[in-house]
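---------- Forwarded message ----------

FYI, see the EF-hand domain-containing protein record below. Original note from H. follows.
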Amino acid sequence: MLISKGFFARFSKRRRTLLDEVLQSAKVGDKMELTFANWRRAMKSAGYSEMEAAFIFQKYDRDGDNMLDFLECRKMREDFSLGLAFQPMDSDDEEKTKDTESTNLDSNKDVFADREDCEELNERIVQVEEGMNNIVRQISSIIGNIERTERARRENEHALMKGII
């Protein structure tokens, strides 16, 4: 079935924000997996057709088990935020994506960060926060000096004006 990219772009622009809501209404959050039945039910309640629901689901169901796992749901969310949900993948892109995803899945089954990486990132964040706090303190000190200088200037100006009058 050949459908033009313009057709998909029209749907993508018109319903882009609704797709995020459909994904939320399908209750993906805690389970980290989505069945086709739940997806179809959520899409139908949002006013989408059976064909649209099946198209989007099949686009992201890489292993063909009629269930989107965590990685597939994450890819779907990313595409929804970019507005690419209804755009068909080119055959070359699809082959490249399948190859890279299969090697990524085989080489790294754990999708969460290592504890050491998290600790290192936390240390970097603390260092950046300390640097920002030092900068804010220096700026506050400079502003305080400027205010004292301005106050002294006004007092001197006031004393000079009293001497003249």
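H. also flagged this: The longest helix spans residues 115-164.
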